[in-house]
Amino acid sequence: MIAAPPPSVIPTPIGVGAAYRPPARTQTVKTGRPVGTFRCGATGKRYGVHLELFARRRVVIVPAGIGIATARRCSYAARTRTPTGVVEIVAGARLTLGDLFRIWGQPLGRGRLAGFRKNGPLLAFVRGRRWRGDPAAIPLTRHAQIVLELGGYVPPHPSFLFPGDL
């Protein structure tokens, strides 16, 4: 028997179109060149952060391959290996959400989220609670659950069940 999700979990559809499926890598990351102060080749134990993105009340996919250089077979301090929103961070790296978006090559700002723009505010939630500061400053701490929303409200999930190795 399959258990029903808790009533607080509301299924949200994935948006239609390319904007809801942004690419994982820029040419810089594909080739393993530096992205600002970040270098490809970050090693060490990693922990997980879960990131959920919503635009116009639809899911924006956090793709597999962010921070992974295909040409050099190396990765940056933040990377994704699956399209689940799980971001792997090198322990001790002290990264922020702005750093992740820089490595990803996607915009993040007051009214911007990946390929979306809106005059209204970008809402941010950490562990289900509203983040009142700059979303780019959100620290990527172990097992953080981060939700960003632009152009409509979706009740944020306060937690995420991480795989055993993260």
Q: What can you tell me about this protein's structure?
A:
The chain is mainly beta and 166 residues long. The chain has helices spanning 27-31, 97-104, and strands at residues 46-55, 58-60, 68-69, 74-75, 78-79, 86-90, 108-109, 112-113, 116-117, 123-126, 129-130, 145-150. Strands 1, 2, 5, 6, 10, 11 and 12 form a 7-stranded mixed beta sheet that branches. The protein has a 3-stranded antiparallel beta sheet with strand order 7-8-9, with no helix packed on it. A two-stranded antiparallel ribbon has the order 3-4. A hairpin with a 2-residue loop joins strand 7 and strand 8. It is globular and about 40 Å long. The mean pLDDT is 91.
Number of helices: 2
Radius of gyration: 15 Å
Average pLDDT, all residues:
91
Gross morphology is: globular
N-end to C-end Cα span: 28 Å
**Strand runs, count:** 12
The SS-based structural class is: mainly beta
Helix content: under 10%
Present the secondary structure layout.
Blueprint: H1 27-31, E1 46-55, E2 58-60, E3 68-69, E4 74-75, E5 78-79, E6 86-90, H2 97-104, E7 108-109, E8 112-113, E9 116-117, E10 123-126, E11 129-130, E12 145-150
Parallel strand pairs: 1-12
Antiparallel strand pairs: 1-2, 1-6, 3-4, 5-6, 7-8, 8-9, 10-11, 10-12
